[in-house]
Amino acid sequence: MDVFIKFVIDFLETFFGSLWSGISGFFLGIFGMFNVVKYVEVFKQYAGDFNALAWILAILTVLLLVGALGAIIFVVYLLIRKYIRVRNTLVSQEELLNEVGKLNKEVVKLSNEKDKILAMKVSHLGLKPEESDVIEEDEEENKTPLAEGESRFYKCTLIDEQMVDRVPKVYDNEITLEEICERFRNFACSRMGLFYEIKIIRLFIAAFASTRLIILQGISGTGKTSLPYAFGKFIQNDTNIASVQPSWRDRTELYGYFNEFTKRFNETETLKRMYEATYSEDVFLTILDEMNIARIEYYFAEMLSILEMPSRSEWVIDLVPSGWPTDPKHIVNGRFRLPENMWYVGTANNDDSTFAISDKVYDRALPINIDTKGKYFEAPYTEPLNLNYKHMESMFAVAKEKYKVSEDNLKKIEVLDDYVIEHFRLAFGNRIVKQLRDFVPVYVACGGTEIDGIDYVLANKILRKFESLNLAFIRDEIEGLIAYLSELFGKENMGESKAYLSRLQKLF
């Protein structure tokens, strides 16, 4: 045993002795490189035998050595500095990731607060806060990184799972457009305490046939938000409310965004409802509440362009650059096709806190003015219904064939177009004419008259553009236009257009 112990001691002594010799030799070598005393001793040893040339060469040798030692010191300094920088960068990245995590938590908290405020906002419509359409965020959803095999689209994937056992609805496919208007008006009155003129209801339903964006504008408190909200209750498919904020700058406010930290797509309630619509034949509505508190051209520009595509197969948005195997069923290769059964209703106030709605938006939308509160009336208790969007669009198609705008009125519109171009340098445009051809027949099918439908489109799509002109210089021309409208369509017709032109005159 003593022999073994001595063997181990000698064996390890050989290893650690060599290791120590290496380490000590390294540091002794470094010390020797910078041992100035040794260099001086060597120099003195040979200096006595130097001639002139040797002295010159010796001095050069000393200078070269000093330069080499200085270079070594400089390289070591750079390496130490680089190490410190790399270390600081790693620490900064770690701090940044922690900060991103904290910010994500704050975003979730603020989103929850917004939802609570929105629930309070709709509570005056007869709902209890817990019955509102606001869905609380899953707090853990956006906090934790994505687990392996988990979908980055949490809400949409959940809809896929819910729709597996979906039972198809039985729709009321025997109802007419006029009956829808009457029943909805009575429903809003008897079930929700909301009073609307029948003309407003007809305009609202007819607008579905001409555009995907409806703008409800007017003074505050006239029921702009409650109108589409009540319609959602009437068709038993609750309306989604997207409360526009002044900070909205791009489309991510509508759809959501991909979180690089958690590898999740933070879906908005609007995107969730759009995805849900792909599984259903219901009519879906999304309210852009106070849509002009931010610039519509910023956050809704892509939607305006896509919805103008003639083929619905082109209604596609890119959500993420590429597809993942765990993505929802209807999001293919990172792309999502917009549902055909979704309409967007924006509410707009015209005051100092809002932005003016541009012609680009107005040309693609159909505005409805709600400037007065509805008058009280009695209505029978009315049940809701299930409305199929395909049936609704089929009724639109039938109305466009049955109640085509008369050739006589179309010729009058062409003549009026020439008059407006000559005197005001404004034109109707093909888009507006198409909307008129789509809107007016459906308005007639809802119980209105052709001339009133034409009057409304002209007043709100054409004459509205006069506000951008210098009214002080066209005051007399406006008087001539009023007279011309009476000449073309009769003194008893085009009341809304004439009233609008008269209001413009009174401004000066």
Write the layout of secondary structure elements.
Blueprint: H1 2-33, H2 36-47, H3 52-122, H4 154-162, H5 177-192, H6 198-210, E1 213-217, H7 226-234, E2 240-243, H8 252-255, E3 256-259, E4 264-267, H9 269-277, E5 284-289, H10 296-299, H11 301-306, E6 316-318, E7 331-332, E8 335-337, E9 342-348, H12 359-364, E10 366-369, H13 389-402, H14 407-424, H15 430-445, H16 450-462, H17 475-489, H18 495-506
Parallel strand pairs: 1-9, 1-10, 2-5, 5-9
Antiparallel strand pairs: 3-4, 6-8, 7-8
Structure description:
With 508 residues, the chain is of the alpha/beta class. It has 4 domains: 33 residues; 96 residues; 226 residues, Rossmann fold; 104 residues. It is 55% helix and 8% strand. The protein contains 18 helices and 10 strands. Strands 2-5-9-1-10 form a 5-stranded parallel beta sheet, sandwiched between helices. Strands 6-8-7 form a 3-stranded antiparallel beta sheet, with no helix packed on it. It has a two-stranded antiparallel sheet with strand order 3-4. Strand 7 and strand 8 form a beta hairpin.
Quick structural overview:
With 508 residues, the chain is α/β, with parallel strands linked by helices. The protein folds into 4 domains: 1-33; 38-133; 144-369, Rossmann fold, CATH 3.40.50; 403-506. The protein is built from 18 helices and 10 strands.
Order of neighbouring strands in the sheet with most strands: 2-5-9-1-10
Specify the CATH homologous superfamily of the largest domain.
Answer: P-loop containing nucleotide triphosphate hydrolases
Put simply, the count of helices is 18
Question: What low-confidence regions span 5 or more consecutive residues with pLDDT below 50?
Answer: 121-141
The helix fraction, in percent, is: 40-55%
Order of helices and strands: HHHHHHEHEHEEHEHHEEEEHEHHHHHH
* CATH fold call of the largest domain: Rossmann fold
Please report the distance between the alpha carbons of the first and last residues.
119 Å
The counted number of beta strands is 10
CATH class of the largest domain: Alpha Beta
Dominant shape: elongated
Number of domains: 4
Oligomer: single chain
- SS-based class: alpha/beta
Please summarize the sheet with the most strands.
Answer: 5 strands, parallel
- The CATH architecture term of the largest domain is 3-Layer(aba) Sandwich
Radius of gyration using CA atoms only: 38 Å
Summarize model confidence as the mean pLDDT. 85
